[in-house]
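Why should sequence recovery work at all? Because a backbone constrains its sequence more than one might expect. Tight turns favour small or flexible residues, buried strands favour hydrophobic ones, and helices have their own preferences. The token representation captures these environments compactly. In the example below, the structure is given first.
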């Protein structure tokens, strides 16, 4: 059975399992679902949001409301569908990203901005076609931003489908170049948007959303550019604390970036270079099996690639990794991909779409592996030599292939 056939079966089984697990637990867990019973008090409250929803789910089924908290979504409420309608009420001290879903799964559903306003939400059977609208100023700003981001996404899909199934070396090379240009434009747009909307809460929200994409220096620059009023918000103060933590992590990074300072703690290899031992990597692979760096074949040169399905620059570099793996695999080269995704479906889908056919993948939901290796932004790649030592830190481009060849020759 081919790699993609196996992956397709795993993906289908994963989705079916989620449905089965939900159907088994739905009735038993209804008593524990939070339901907002304080709507009378909220009617006169300041800072209140009202979500008026439409869904084609059957009557007496539940719609679930999740709120973004740090890097995940927390279940905060549920509402019963009556004649295709449902409603949520609550307090929005500051605008936040929420998600509604017809199944009790925080990784699935339609995400939108919630502020102190009335928001009309329509859940389409195809989640991508769901909509949310409100007359508030911040909602209009957010809609303007998301519409432009959708345009980038559409352009990216058009580049892929424009190949019309012709995946020749020349076409793949052109696709890679075009995607790099597009992703560069997208990243420049985000940074420019933040700078040009420094007095908008949306700018602060975008800084937080991109906290895992940008390094500490860029984040600090973007944060410092926010207006005094925006930086005075509690939300922004917490963002400042987040950046400080990231800046501290940079100073406390592992010996990967301070090799000369920790010679006494690391080993010397045959080339006379000082290389630290690779730190532990373990997690579930794309088949739900436990795997680790130590379980990989010995004597291999291993590229550890930190990436995520939502990271545009990561996706842009994947064709290069595919080509390197194909070229040097027979010589003892392997790739271990460490995903920073939260949702397994998105992760599995990206592996299949980008053709990451190597056997070694793990998902790093809690960023424990990334922290251990001092990863402050992705994409981030490092090389491990045949003896299990870290031979190169944060390497890419032409230097990557050159270094691979050097390590294979040792």
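From this structural description, the recovered sequence reads:
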């Amino acid at each position: 059975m081919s790699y993609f056939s196996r992956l397709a079966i795993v993906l289908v089984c994963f989705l079916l399992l989620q449905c089965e697990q939900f159907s088994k637990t739905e009735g038993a867990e209804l008593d524990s679902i939070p339901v907002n019973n304080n709507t009378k008090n909220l009617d006169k409250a300041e800072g209140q949001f009202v979500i008026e929803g439409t869904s084609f789910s059957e009557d007496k089924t539940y719609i679930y409301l999740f709120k973004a908290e740090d890097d995940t979504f927390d279940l905060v409420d549920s509402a019963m569908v009556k004649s295709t309608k449902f409603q949520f009420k609550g307090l929005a001290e500051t605008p936040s990203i929420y998600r509604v879903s017809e199944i009790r799964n925080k990784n699935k559903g339609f995400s939108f901005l919630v502020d102190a306003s009335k928001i009309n939400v329509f859940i389409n059977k195809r989640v991508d076609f769901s909509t949310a609208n409100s007359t508030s100023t911040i909602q209009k700003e957010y809609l303007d931003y998301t519409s432009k981001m959708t345009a980038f996404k559409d352009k990216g899909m058009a580049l892929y489908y424009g190949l019309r199934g012709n995946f020749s070396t020349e076409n793949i090379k052109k696709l890679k170049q075009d995607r790099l240009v597009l992703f560069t434009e997208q990243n420049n747009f985000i940074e420019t948007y933040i700078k040009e909307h420094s007095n908008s809460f949306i700018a602060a929200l975008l800084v937080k959303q991109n906290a895992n994409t940008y390094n500490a220096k860029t984040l600090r620059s973007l944060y410092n550019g926010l207006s005094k009023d925006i930086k005075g918000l509690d939300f922004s103060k917490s963002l400042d604390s987040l950046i400080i933590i990231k800046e501290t992590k940079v100073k406390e990074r592992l010996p990967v970036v301070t090799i000369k300072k920790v010679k006494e703690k690391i080993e010397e290899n045959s080339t006379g270079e000082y290389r630290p031992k690779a730190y532990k990597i373990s997690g579930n692979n794309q088949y739900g099996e436990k795997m680790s760096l130590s379980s990989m074949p010995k004597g291999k040169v291993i590229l550890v690639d930190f990436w995520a399905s939502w990271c545009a620059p990561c996706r842009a570099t994947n064709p290069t990794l595919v080509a390197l793996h194909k070229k040097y695999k027979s010589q003892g080269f392997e790739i271990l991909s460490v995903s920073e995704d939260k949702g397994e479906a998105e992760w599995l889908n990206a592996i299949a779409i980008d053709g990451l056919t190597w056997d070694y993948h793990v998902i790093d939901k809690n960023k424990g592996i990334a922290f251990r290796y001092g990863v402050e932004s992705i994409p981030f790649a490092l090389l491990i030599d045949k003896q299990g030592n870290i031979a190169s830190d944060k390497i890419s481009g032409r230097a990557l292939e050159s270094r691979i060849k050097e390590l294979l020759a040792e």
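A few observations help interpret the result. The CA atoms of residues 339 and 363 lie 5 Å apart.
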